[in-house]
Design goal:
It holds the Pfam family Isochorismatase. Keywords: Hydrolase. With about 220 residues, this protein is of the alpha/beta class. It has one domain: Isochorismatase-like (Rossmann fold, 3-Layer(aba) Sandwich). Helix content is about 35%, strand content about 15%. The chain contains nine helices and seven strands, in the order αβααβααβαβαββαβα. It has helices at about 5-15, 35-40, 50-65, 80-85, 90, 135-140, 155-165, 185-195, 205-210; strands spanning about 25-30, 70-75, 120-125, 145-150, 170-175, 180, 200.
């Protein structure tokens, strides 16, 4: 199941973790926080996620012909939220105070193929579901599978995957489409998602899945 060794794998398998999730015919692609503050290393909160941006862009382009909804998320705080004490998370993750509304840090990476009709979810916490209308939007779209990409793997991607499955959506995470600031947290988060919350799959499998979907009517 992982690269953590046979003892770890056998422990999780014995406990009944890691079973495959079902793949529906009406997925939605949720691209989590691929904003400049995370994808560019010139920002204190960021790292070079060029490969993740490229892999995710390919997935988005494959989703379009099948009519798969593409939903983008971004973390953005008002100046009052960033500097005040109303957002408890910022007491722990102080670097996130730089993600202020209207700043370059909260702009989507310009290399991404966003379209005007795509839904944009602005959030204040790690999960794209917490405090947002995302679950209701997915239900309204008839979504039966959540394909989750973005950054960071150990933070907002993992939190979104957890809340997606808790909201009733099977989760797929293409590994090449998720990135983090460091390899260790990235690997650990993917292991955790694969064991408990969704299927971590390769980009090729994700592309094949999207391309095999029936054409929209």
């Amino acid at each position: 199941m992982s690269g953590y060794g046979s003892e770890t794998d056998s422990t999780y398998e014995r406990a009944g973790f890691g079973a495959p999730v079902r793949r529906g015919t009406r997925p939605a692609l949720i691209v989590v926080d691929l904003t400049r503050g995370f994808t560019e290393e010139s920002f204190p909160t960021g790292s070079d996620l060029t490969e993740v941006v490229g892999a995710t862009s390919a997935l988005v382009e494959a989703a379009r012909p099948a009519g798969v909804p593409v939903i983008w998320t971004a973390i953005a705080y008002s100046a009052a939220e960033a500097e005040g004490g109303s957002v408890t998370w910022l007491e722990k993750a102080t670097g996130m105070r730089a993600l202020v509304e209207g700043s370059a840090a909260v702009d989507l990476d310009p290399r991404l193929p966003r379209r005007p009709e795509d839904l944009m979810v602005v959030k204040k916490g790690a999960s794209a579901f917490f405090g947002t209308s995302l679950a209701a939007s997915l239900t309204g779209l008839g979504t039966d599978t959540a394909v989750v990409c973005g950054a960071t793997t150990s933070g907002c991607v993992r939190a979104t995957a957890v809340d997606a499955v808790q909201s009733g959506f099977p989760v797929l995470v293409p590994r090449e489409c998720a990135g983090d600031r460091a390899q260790g947290p990235h690997d650990a988060a993917l292991f955790d998602i694969q064991a408990k919350y969704g299927d971590v799959i390769g980009q090729t499998e994700a592309l094949d899945y999207l391309r095999r979907l029936p054409s929209p009517t």
